[in-house]
Please model this.
Amino acid sequence: MLPIVNLSKGLRCWTFGICLVFAVSGTFVRIGYAAEGANASETLESMVAPQSWLTISLHRPSQLFENQMVQQLYAAALQSRQVQSAINSDQADLYRKMIELVEHSTGETFNTGLQKLTDGGLYVGVSGDNPPRVDVAIGAQDEAALATFVTQFETWVIGRVAPQLTGESLPTMTYGNVKYRALGPARYAVVGNVLLMSNREEGLHELIDRSRHLNTSASASTTVDAPLARLVIAGDKLRSTPNLQAALGWPASDPNLVTFLGGWLDALRRCEHFDVSLHATSSEMNVVASLPYQSSSSAAFQETVGLEGYFAPVDGPGIAPLLIPEGTIYSSSWYRDYRALWNQRADSVIPDVLKRVEEGNELTKTQFSQFGVQATLSELLSTLGPQFRSVVARQFGSPYNVELNEQFPAAAIVIRLQDEEGFRRHFIPLLKTLNLIAMFSQAQMVTQSEKYRDVDLNVLMFADDEQAVSKGNRFRFHFSPTFCISHGHFLSGSSVDLIKRLIDELDIETTSASSSQPAAGTTELQMLSAAEADVVVRELRQQIVYRLLISQGLAKEVAEGEADLFSKVLKSIGTVTTAATRSPERFEYQLHIKHPAHTSE
Amino acid sequence: MPETQSPSAAQDAGLQEFLHIPPELLWQPYVPNASDPWDAVKVAHLYRRTSFGASYAEIQAGLKTDPESLVRQILNTSRNKNDDDAIAFEHDTRQMTAMALDSGNSRELQAVWLYRMLHSPQPLLERMTLFWHNHFATSNAKVRNLRLMQRQQDSLRNHALGSFDDLMQEMTFDPAMIIWLDGNTNQKGKPNENYAREIFELFSLGVGNYSEADIQEAARALTGWSVVNDEAVFQSPLHDAGSKSILGETGRWTAGDVVRIALAQPACPKFVVRKLFREFISDSLEPTDEMIAPLVEEFRQRNYDIGWIVGRMVRSWLFYSPLAIGQKVKSPVDFLVGSVKSLEGTMSLVQMAETCQTLGQNLYFPPSVKGWDGGYLWLNSTTLLQRQNMAFSIAGNTRTTDPAQLTEKYNIEGDETTATFFLDLFLQQHDPEIVAEMTRYLQEERLKLKTTFQSDSSREAQLARKAAHLTMTMPEYQLS
Model:
C-alpha cells in the first residue's frame, strides 16, 4: 500500500467525476469481447479523436499522484479543518460514493484501485453540435477489476434510479458480437480491459468498430515525452464561443480589449487550435499552453500579422531580465509598447471608436493641465516602456521610529523610459502634485527627499509622532511610498527600502557583462518563490492567526493549526515560474513548478 | 420551609399570590425538591443568564451536579484572577485587541469582544462587562478613539464583579467617559451639567432621587477634569474649588466626593439592585421595594460587592421560578453567541458583529447615554425577520455551525429523537404535541429528500438542519 493512502482523493474524484458525468449521459458498459483484428493501428487516444473539436487525454492519471509536491500538498490539505468540512459536506457526497465503489470493487485502497481502473489512460472526444457527441475510452490495467467495478456501479445506479428510469435492470443490446447497455440516451460497453462510452448509439458503434484495431501495446502513455494530461480545442470552435466572438472581432469595438488583452486575443484569433498539456515527474510539474498559428490561407485572419506592441517582437529586443533582490517573493517582467499600440490605433479599432478614443485622449490634456501637466495620456504613456517589471519582496528596514512587530512585504514597479526627458517634464510634476494632496489629506503624510547613490528619492511618509501613533492605526507604518528615476528607469514602490535595493539591482544589471537576458521571443516572465512567501507567512503568523480567529471564530489552537498548515503548503510548492514566448509559428505559455528539494538555489 | 409558603408551590398559584410571599423567602437559595427538581430547564437558564448559553454536553454535565456547586463554579471561575486558563486567555485576547486597535477598525474590536464571549473561561465576567457597558453607556460615535473605548472596557472588566464603589470611581475619571459626557467643557465659571446629571440619573440614583440644585452643585465639583493626550488630567485653574452642597452634604467637594455622596444615598443600592434584577431575573417584571429590600441593605453593607449580589440572585428561588425563566428577550448578542455555543460551532466574528448591529446592538456604540433599552424593544418586524434569516443561515451552514455534526456526535437517530434532541438543546422542553408536529414535518421532508443520488448520511444531515432551523424559529427561542 502506498503511504499516500488517501492522496488526492479530490483530484482522483475529479477524474472519476468526469467519468461519472459521461456515465450519466453515456452509461456504463458490460464486457463484450476482447479486441481482435490483424490491423492493430488504433490507440485509445486515436479512437476518440476523429472529428473531435475537443479532446481530453489523461495518459496515466495516477502518475500525477506520484509527484512529491502533490503528495505533500494533499497530505497538508487533509489536515485543514476547511478541507475536511468540504470533504464531509453534502456536495462531496457523490464523490465519496465513487471512492467507496472503487475501493469495494477493486478490493484495494482508492489509490491502487484507481490505478487498476484507469492506468491505460482516459480519453474523451467531443464532436459535432446540438448536442455534441461525447465519446469516452478508459483503459484499465486489470480486466477483472473493471468488470467488477462496472457491475457494482450498475447495481448502485439501478438501486438509485429505478423505477424512474430503467426498472430493475438495464436494457442490453448487441452490436456485432459486443453486448452493450443503455442508460437514458447513453450507451456503454466493455471490450477487454477497455470501457467505451458514448452519448450516441452510433458513437458507441464507431468506438466498438475501432476497438477491433486497437493496438494495446502502442499507447501514447509509453512515449517518453507524452504529457500526463492534454486538452486540445480546435481554434474555430473556440472562436465560435458566444462570449469570445464579440471580443475577437477585428478591428475591435472596445479599446479596453486592445489595451488590456490585445495580445492574448490576437493569439486566440489566429490559432489553429488551443493545446494545453501537463507534464509531471516526481519533482516537477510543467503546464504548457500552446497556440500554433494558422498556416492555411483560408483563415479569416490569416492576413493579420497580429497586434504589434502588446507582446515583445519575435525577432527584436524583448523583455528585461527579472529583478530578484534579496527576499523576493514575486517578480515579473513583461513587454508593452504603448507608443506602438497608439500608432496603430487606426487599424486596431473601428472608425467610430477611433474617433471617441482620439477625442478622449485630447480631453486628458485639459484634465492633466490642472496638475501642471501639458500632455495627453497617449503622450504620457509613450514615454514609458516597453520593458516593465514588478517586484514584491520582504522589507529589511523601516524609515519610521515606530516599532512594528512584523513587516509586511513591499511592492514596486520598474519601468524603462523610452523618453526620459519627456517623462521628467510631464510625470514628475504630476507625481509631486499627488504627493502634496497626500500631505494635506487626513492621512497626515510628509514628503521628504533623500539621496541614494546619486539618485534623488521622493519619499512620502506618515507622521510618526506619539500622538499620531496613538490615534491612528499602525498598519500604515509598513508603507513609505517612494518614486525616483534611475538607470533610465522609473521606479515607484510602497517602501523606500525596496526602492533602494532595486536601484542596487539596476546598477548590477547595467555594469555586469553577464546579465541573464531572457531568450528571444520571450514576452513575459514571472517568478513566485513560495519559500520566501513562507518566511513572510511565518513572520506574520500572529496576524494570520488573528485574522482566522476573527474571520472564522475558530478557537486559538485550531487557528494556529490552520496557519501552520498554510506554511506547510507553501513549503511544498517550491518555486513557480511562468514564461510566455512568441515565435513565427506559435504563441506559448508555460507554467513550471519545481519542488523545493530540487530547486537549484 | 413549609411547602405552602414556598415559592415553588406558589408557581401554580399565579403571580399575585407569588408576590405576597415574603421577600426573604424569594431570595433564599433554591433547593431542588420533588415538585421543583433540578432539571435541564434550570441548568440552561443559569448558563444563559450567567454565560451566553451552553452546549448540550454542558447542560448534561450541569444536571449531574447540584445548583449550588454549579453556581459556585461559575462565580469562582469568573472572579479568580489567578486562574491559569484565565491568565492564558487574557494574554491571547490582549494580543488580539492590540491588533484590532492597530487596524483602527471598530468592527474588529467588536469581533475580539465577541471572541471573548464565545471562548472565555470566565463567561460571567464577560456577561457583566457587557452589562456595565450598557450601564455606563459610552459611544465611540462621539469619543472617536478606539483605544480609549477599549481602556474603558478593560476598566469595566476589571471591576465587573468587584466593588460598585470602585467601578463608579474608575468611570468618573475615565477619559472616554469624560469626552462622552462633555467633561472637557465643564470648567469653573461655566459648568456643563451633562456629566453630573448622568452620574445621578443613570449611573447611581435614578430619577427623583436628586434635585436640579444637586446637579448644578455636582457639576461644579466635577470641573477641572479634561482629557489631554488620551489621559484624564486635572487642571486646578479650571476647577471650581468653592463650597458646594450636594444631596445634603456641604464642603469643597471634588469629583471623587460626588461619587462618595451618591453612593451614600439609600437610593443608590436600590437603583443598582433594580438594574441587576432586570439583567438576571426579568425585564418585564418591575420589582417592588419590598421585594428587593433584603438585597439592598446587604449590598450596601458589603460595600457594593457586585459578585456577592449576582451570586445571591442566581442562587435564589426567584431566579429558578417561572417569573424568571424565559422572561427576558434575548439581546442580539445573546441570540447569536448563544446559538453558536449551542451548536458547538464557529462563526465569523466580524459577521457576527455586523449582524448584532443590524439587529440593534452595535457594541461600543450604544444609541444614547441610556444604553440599549432591551426587553421587547429588541424585537420588531424587521429584527424578527432578520433573526429568522440568521437562524436559517446558522442552521444551514455546513462548515461552521452544522447541526448534523451534533446528531452524529451524540448518536441521534430517527425523526422523533431528532426533534426531541433539538427541542431539548434549544428550549429544554418538549411538549408532546410539538414533538409530534415536528416529527411529522421531518417525515414529510424525508420523503421529499429521497432523490436519486443522495446518500443516507447526507439525507439525515439535511433533516437535522431542518429540525434545528425549525426550533430556532420558534417564538420561545427568542426568550432567555
